[in-house]
Amino acid sequence: MKRFYILMLLLLAPLAEAQTVDDIKRELSAIDERYMQDRRADLDAVARSNFGRQFNGDPENDMRLIQLLLDRNTVRPEQRMLLQAMGYVLGDILVKKHRVRWIIFEDRVGRSRALEVDGKPDVVFPATAISRRAETGAKVDVQAVYERLVSEIEFIRQRFYVR
């Protein structure tokens, strides 16, 4: 039982991190945008070939399709790039519905594609929100991950920052 709680704490760790002096936010480069576009296309090809369905920008369709790919083990835990592509699709839904934008976030850990919330210092990381869970073998509830990301966005928006 103790292991279960530790695993849950790791999986449900906050998706937002406070920005430090060394953290840098940058616009997506053309290479970053192309990379994300190619990964989305890879994921779309998997969905088309296995289910005859595609991602179309409709949140309900896209989240259901991600869930189907996970539930049927079509995309497996070791397929990190496809799992992160699911995060890009989820992030695209957030961009449309919650007025956030894709950026590059660099910190002491590395370089990540993240969503910036209204110019605030904190960011959310949809690209890894699914992959980190799936890679551990945990069952991923896509709707719950999405709701968690929305909750993080709202928390960041309401948070008071002192500079």
Task: Kindly describe this structure.
It is a single chain. The chain has 7 helices and 4 strands; from the N terminus they run αβαααβββααα. The chain has helices spanning 2-11, 30-51, 59-71, 80-98, 126-129, 131-135, 142-158, and strands spanning 24-26, 100-106, 111-117, 123-124. A 4-stranded antiparallel β-sheet has the order 1-2-3-4. Helix 2 crosses helix 4 (80-98). The chain is globular.
- Main beta-sheet strand count, sense and barrel state: 4 strands, antiparallel
Structural class computed from helices and strand pairing: alpha+beta
Mean pLDDT: 89
Q: What is the beta-strand fraction?
A: 5-15%
Question: Which shape, going by the Cα principal axes?
Answer: globular
Gap between N and C termini, in Å?
42 Å
Q: Could you estimate the helical fraction of the residues in percent?
A: 55-70%
Strand count: 4
Low-confidence regions = 11-21
Strand order of the largest sheet: 1-2-3-4
Radius of gyration: 16 Å
Order of helices and strands: HEHHHEEEHHH
SSE layout and pairing:
Layout (H helix, E strand, L loop, with lengths): L1 H10 L12 E3 L3 H22 L7 H13 L8 H19 L1 E7 L4 E7 L5 E2 L1 H4 L1 H5 L6 H17 L5
Helix pairs in contact: 2-4, 3-4
